[in-house]
Write the structure tokens for this entry.
Amino acid sequence: MRLSMKSERSPVLLLAAAFVLFCSNALAQKPTLPERLAQCGTCHGEDGNSKLENIPSLAGQPAFFTLNALILMREGVRKVEAMAPFVKDLSDADIQALAEHFEKLPAKRSEEKVDPALAERGATIAAQRRCESCHLPSLEGHQQMPRLARQRVDYMIHAMRQYLTDSRSGADTAMTAAIYGLRDEDIVALAHWAASK
Ligand code: HEC
Ligand code: HEC
């Protein structure tokens, strides 16, 4: 049976076809920067300050550090499963814009408790290990060295455990060397020290 082009075309079907076309267009289009930032915000905090365990704050991170991390993740060198869907189609320009955006946001302390006794012990270890020579005395970081000041305590412990056990893929060996041979309790103390700055 031949369908007549004129009489049998239902307006409902046409509308449905238009809707499908609209959706596939919308899907094919890459998210805009504000749409991307909303995605990042669900995990890293709307203002770039994370409220979630083991998820780092991005606010106030040196743009170069963020850029570097995102490129490593996009290329699959630093493997972070939770982030894979959000980095796979980022262009270099997207990455640059995201990195610059987060650098400008003010870093805020998390609601975690910083233990003053641990922080003091951490300060002694930090002096021996010269953490400030790379992360700066203010611990604000620069270039590929991340900000530690006001970073989440749990995330810093998590990250240092990864360096210590060589389980952070694509990690900078400078950092692995900096904490080589430390015990878990030293790392916890260092995280409290860094968060206290
Ligand atoms: C589903 C949650 C989730 C989403 C959405 C997400 N991230 Fe992440 N992100 C994580 C987790 C978890 C880590 C920590 C990975 C680890 O343990 O090494 C991380 C780490 C990072 C890091 C490394 C930071 C550091 O201090 O080491 C950067 C940079 C980053 N994310 C940027 C982004 C950007 C930009 C977006 C949006 C395009 C985004 N993330 C979306 C979960 C997420
Ligand atoms: C020789 C330079 C250097 C020294 C010294 C150094 N770091 Fe790092 N640190 C780095 C670099 C570079 C990175 C980023 C590594 C990467 O991309 O995996 C880093 C990452 C980190 C991270 C992960 C932060 C994040 O957001 O992902 C923590 C925590 C950290 N350093 C703490 C310390 C502490 C504490 C000390 C002193 C015991 C220290 N660092 C000494 C260079 C250094």
